[in-house]
# Entry
Amino acid sequence: MVVRIVRIAGIVVVALGVVIGSLYGWTRSHPHKLRADIEINASAAQVWQVLTDFRSYPEWNPFILSAVGEPRKGAKLVNKLAGTDGGKGMTFKPTVLVADPGHELRWIGRFGVPGVVDGEHYFLIQETGPGRVKLTQGENFTGFLVPFAGSAIDVQDNFAAMNAALKQRVEAAH
# Structure
């Protein structure tokens, strides 16, 4: 009887491992992608300055309510996000992957251990003409719980709101 229970428990553990591994692998090849673009009448350097002035986020940013840390590769940030659909916000501690002034800021945040829900968040700044740039904010979500995360990771409207607020702040200052 005990041997049979141990055997069944082993089968359940292996099956669970296969399911989790399969979900993780599927989201690595098919991440849940969000993206929002906006044109800003300013230079790439001006957009970068506002984007990376984390101390000023509480003054203008409707999505990332506060950010503490430095925009440099390998740095840890502490970001507090607004809640979605009137829900409670959250604080997370991403690691900066890329900090290329005037071009790209990218970090990765994780829910718990790697592979559960990982979000690689990015800002791309591309010059489109003299004194004009396109800002792209996006995130690629991977991890075995991503297919079940639903509205918890559906923050594209928040990206658009932050982009619009950043545009307003940059253009008003310059």
Q: What stands out?
A: The helical segments are 2-29, 44-51, 57-60, 146-149, 156-173. The chain has a mean pLDDT of 89. The two ends are 77 Å apart (CA to CA).
